[in-house]
Specification:
By secondary structure, this protein is an alpha+beta fold. Helices cover 49% and strands 23% of the residues. The chain has a four-stranded antiparallel sheet with strand order 2-3-1-4.
Length: 150
């Protein structure tokens, strides 16, 4: 069930509050669209449950982990690296494995000199993912480390 206009306004205001005044329109739009998508798919309140992730979407510092997997096809790695290059990201390390018709890819990417904040990079990778029919996930390194702490 799609959120009401009032709920969308609440989402926009909460995203603005959590991202801060320096958040660009592209980042704000990416956060709001992702929140609405998640609300429609799960019916739960993404904004209040996952507020800590918003602070990373406006960052242009640190490193991100990009993971991708799917059916292997020509141009997959080119498309992902092209998307990262368009924001001037620096790929530090790559691990790739092709298993018959499928592939897995993990990249460590430095975004400190990127032209785009992490939220925009994530949105651009989502578009590439949709175009290719594969999965591409991107997490800020801080979140990745926190999730995998023992």
């Amino acid at each position: 069930m799609p959120p009401t206009e009032e709920k969308i306004r609440e989402i926009v205001e909460e995203a603005k509050r959590q991202l801060g005044p320096e958040a660009g329109d592209d980042t704000l739009k990416a956060v709001v669209m992702e929140t609405i998508r998640r609300l429609e798919s799960t019916g739960s309140s993404y904004v209040s449950e996952h507020h800590s992730t918003f602070k990373y979407l406006n960052l242009t510092e640190g490193r991100i982990i990009v993971t991708s997997f799917g059916k292997n096809q020509p141009g997959v790695i080119y498309s992902i690296t092209k998307t990262l290059n368009e924001c001037h990201c620096d790929i530090l390390d790559v691990s790739q494995k092709i298993m018959q018709d499928f592939y897995t890819l993990i990249m460590l990417v430095d975004i400190k000199n990127a032209d785009c904040p992490f939220g925009v990079i994530k949105e651009n990778l989502a578009k590439t993912s949709e175009q290719l029919g594969i999965r591409i996930l991107a997490q800020h390194e801080d979140v990745f480390k926190a999730m995998h702490r023992v």
